[in-house]
Amino acid sequence: MRIMGLDFGSKTVGVAVSDSLLLTAQGVEIIRRSRESKLRQTLARIEELILEYEVQEIVLGCPKHMNGTEGVRVELTEEFKEKLERRTGLPVFLWDERLTTVAADRTMMEAGVRRENRKEYVDKIAATLILQGYLDRRRNAQEAAE
To answer: Which CATH number do you get for residue 99?
Structure first.
């Protein structure tokens, strides 16, 4: 079993997948689309990756505001969640993604990635951070229950 993490943006979707032991998240790719409303090809690519990696669960970053309120992006993310569930038949869990893009950008800065190249990778790294946070929480909850 593997879990997929997604960072859903207006023109891109960062994709990460867990290892089979559900310990670590690895960035896979960034799916790009020409317009925000064009989701058919994005959903088709996600389905291909689900089959390729044998994914059984999806974690989708939920972009709440820093004060915890929800804006337009949260509504769009919830609509995307519903489309994913209908199309894939898999459970999709929303995960608070506040500061993941900031953390991804900081990670790249520390790694010496040039500013103009960071945009190329930020969504995939953000998806990895979303998924890793989910995996860590899941593992901690299981250990506490034992």
So the answer is: 3.30.420.140
